[in-house]
Amino acid sequence: MNDKRNLYEEKYFVNGSKAVWNYSLFTDDDIRDYQYGIHCRLYELFGNKQLTVLNTKGTYFAVWAPNALKVYIVGDFNNWTDEKHELIVRQDSSGIWEGFIPHVAPGELYKYRIKTSKGELIYKADPFANFAELRPQTASITYHFNYNWQDDLWLKKRKKVNALNAPISVYEVHLASWMRPDKHDEESYNSYQNMIELLVPYVKEMGFTHVEFMPVMEHPFDGSWGYQDTGYFAPTSRFGKPEDFMRLVDAFHNENIGVILDWVPSHFPADAHGLFMFDGEHTYEYADVRKGFHPDWNSYIFNYSRGEVRSFLLSSAHFWCDVFHIDGIRVDAVSSILRLDYSRQSGQWEANEFGGNGNLEAIAFVKLLNETLYKNFPYIQTIAEESTDWPGISKPTYEEGLGFGMKWMMGWMHDTLDYFKQEPYNRARYQNDFTFSMAYYYNENFMLPLSHDEVVHGKSPMLYKMPGDDWQKFANLRLLYAYMYFHPGAKLLFMGNEFAATQEWNYKTELQWDLLMWPSHQGMKECVTRLNQLYRQENALYEKQFERDGFEWIDLKHEQECVIAFKRKGLTSKDDILVILNLTPEVRWNWKINVFGKSKWSEIFNSDSIEFWGSGDVYNVDIQMEEIDKERKYYTMNVHLPPLGLIALK
Question: What predicted TM-score, i.e. pTM, was given to this entire model?
């Protein structure tokens, strides 16, 4: 930024009658790119910047308010006095108001006081602020980052760790409610700093490769879980200062764990201090409510046709990858971005110029987002939460795709949960639904999600989705998790699922950590830990996880017994893993299955193991093989299948 600032050494001047000095960080190229909607680093220009001008320390402010008559800075430094510090509008029709105020130091509260075209006065937080007051207060805070990163080794090897042919196992976390100092007090938080001692070693112990945070961007309402943001460039002050969040990311990296952030470019709330009607007009949102209002979430939709808004969102995504070293962006509610008719009835939306339901400028924005992120940060991943059959979500844009690295496999999630909710002896009728995902798993780079959305709003915790008595519920859930880990694709598990929480997730409390005193819940945790270990260790589970030839059906002919078998295949046949599921409570002794390949197999995983709180009495020590065709290497295998169990053989 210093080089850019030097371009303006001769352009500033001091107006003796005002407390604001006319000073700018913007070049003509910046303004052009901003208006064209291709600027990715606006966080270096907008907001508040600590500078020295004419040997005078102070703060430079810049804000976009194209419809404003006047813009003032009010804050601690002027006792919130109106009209003392009036910003200066650029003379290039950009709608940017800016100026340097001497002697304003870091840590000062402030807002923009905007006089609208109707003469009204409104007070807005800074859209580009990096730090804000703890809610319910809403002021921005002047701030300057000061942190020395220690993750050079991680960044050098991230290319390999974050690759699509590497194991990607994600632990989804809501920071406020994962663990609290006082589990009954929703105002009781562990800080970012505390989480270095608590969360980092836990994720490492569990064996997850990545952690994903539900939105940490500043937001006013706890009940939104972070999905109604007002601060797109600020980690929430609920848990500490921005540098504290940097330390947390750094700590994960130093334990070889990647960090993914949920990011919400689809909508924003109507809070008075936020983006809505920012300068008295529809500045960030569409004016037409058919495009600009989300009926589901009572929020407002970004105007993707406006270059300045596209640049704002592009810069936000880049900010987290650049300044906070984030390894992946999970984009929320992609379906609502792409579709004009999302959650709307006939007559509530207007077709695009070709008569279709796609939001053309939003589609172009999503493609540009992925292109620029992968260009500037080639070893991150972008992940789409997209719930429809929109084609090419994770295909490159040069192949007519949207350019995401991965897509949540919502169809797999729904079909699998529907199947496991069935009483075991009724499951035979639903085998086609259960196995349907194998017909299309290679169409996208899929991530299998068992996320927060599946354990709230009366959907019940994962354990109580399972039928049967307690033993069967735990056996079914271990079987479900094992099936997820041996199914092609990356994995995502929401916090609490790993030890079989018995209550729905509640953002106001903490997880039920006391359940781990019981062997059943501890066994579930051990099961997930072992699955993460296998996923990392066995090449066949990740080398071709998004490729058609990484999977092969072995046996689908025993649907009445609810037994199915498939192979996960690596680059060489010696890495292949045979997976057999017994989806009923009946033990299958001496089960025969025909396989090609090797004549010696051993059991490497059994979901019924005693260490997982299984029965532990149905296992395979010495697997008998009968030769059918020596030349073709074709054999009959004789194995024992545990009740409601999955075994994996290598």
Answer: 0.95
